[in-house]
Amino acid sequence: MDFETTFFSSPIGVHPEDIDVRPRLGYWQSKRAFLLSRGLNLYQLSSPRPSMIYCYPPCNPNAGGTLPYAIYEDSVDYDVMSNIPAFRFGTRGVVVPAVDELNRHVTLKLIKNGSSEYKTLRRIMSLQARSAEGILSGLVPVLELIPMDAHWVAIMPRWSGQPVTGWFCSVKELLFCVEELLNGLVVLHSQRIVHRDLAPHNCLTNYVPAGPNRIDIEDPANAVRQLQSSHSLRYGWIDYGFSVPLPLEIPLSLCRFSWQASVPGAWDIPYDVSQGEYIYDPFAFDVGTLGIFFCAMCQHLTPQIPLLAPFLDRMVTRDISSRFTAAAALDFVHHIQETLSEKELEQPCELPGYEERDYETFDRWRGLPDTFIAQWGHMREPSRVPVWTRVLRFACGYMWIEGAVRYYRRAVDYILGHRFQVLSVE
């Protein structure tokens, strides 16, 4: 089997859903006996299909659960009339689920030996080993790396879903989720790891329902809200397939990637290279990407939590030199938490509307008190994109203009003596 083609690369111009996943799943099936010898029983596979396959656990998980493993819905509560088996797992063969000898459900991912993803996972595991609880706030734990066919299998607990599923029972829980996700990014950046794929689908919580559509977001008694109320949920990042671990001695402020490195990864990204920039700050780019995610999650709540306005604006500001670092953003979240009263923290969060609210043009300060704006207005990002910026973005839609602008920017930096450490990306 050609591992490089089957697992570690995607054909150029081919959508992931159009890739035939059957060779990947055939490989995992061939390793079933080996994995059993390591105490891992793969889920049963449904009939193979070209682009997607569903897996079913050999036995239902035990209800409840303790960290680092997920909390599972009691399968007794699952509708026995459903034609969808409980706890099914959809996969394209890169990540597959399994059960260990204690009926704890995990996921397996084949990791290329010596790759950036492998180095990232090793750094995370080293940090976990030095932490008091063996886990890192804001990151889904890495349980083990086992060798297989000259590569590695990363074992992680099976968590699921996007944290916003079921919404948040209170302002306190919303801010805790934001705090956890920021803390995960702070950990990565402190280890000079650029994530590059801070997308909603890579953000999980330690609760697994028995089936799809099991959570009524408008039901105040739904399972997720109950777990939030008891402060039982944790939130964390996964998937380091696009990550870049850099030398630990590199200063965050001087690190730059070539503009091409901004293309792989998350879909909703800041416009840091849309004006003909030839290099960009990857750590600030991570923060901007996460800021866009947070805007989609909670920018409509600024009338209820006014300090979200300067917080979000500083995460997504077009002035990259003024953008929060991950650590500064986390400090500001702590400030928000300390400023609110217990009564304000216990207030429920309003559900977001259905209309599109672009992070760059949405006015997060609308309706806020004049006294608040006077105090925090220095952190305000104009909700109208400057004309010159819009013109430059439009012009850079033409490749020859974009190339000329990049050449000009490079020349200006050289003349002015701006020196950055431009690092290569795999």
Short description:
The protein has 13 helices and 18 strands. It has 426 residues and is an alpha+beta fold. Strand 9 (144-148) and strand 10 form a beta hairpin.
Write up this protein:
This protein is α+β, with helices and mostly antiparallel strands and 426 residues long. The protein folds into two domains: 3-157, no CATH class; 171-256 and 279-383, Transferase(Phosphotransferase), domain 1. Helix content is 33%, strand content 14%. The chain contains 13 helices and 18 strands. The protein has helices at 3-6, 22-30, 32-37, 116-130, 171-190, 223-229, 282-298, 308-316, 326-339, 342-345, 370-376, 387-395, 399-416; strands spanning 41-42, 44-45, 53-56, 71-72, 89-91, 95-99, 105-111, 138-139, 144-148, 151-157, 193-194, 203-205, 207-208, 235-237, 244-245, 255-258, 279-280, 421-423. The strands form six sheets. Strands 1-6-7-10-9 form a five-stranded antiparallel β-sheet. Strands 2-3-5 form a three-stranded antiparallel β-sheet, with no helix packed on it. Helix 5 (171-190) runs antiparallel to helix 9, helix 7 runs antiparallel to helix 8 (308-316) and helix 8 (308-316) packs antiparallel against helix 9. The radius of gyration is 23 Å and the shape is globular. It starts with a helix and ends with a strand. 38% of the residues are buried.
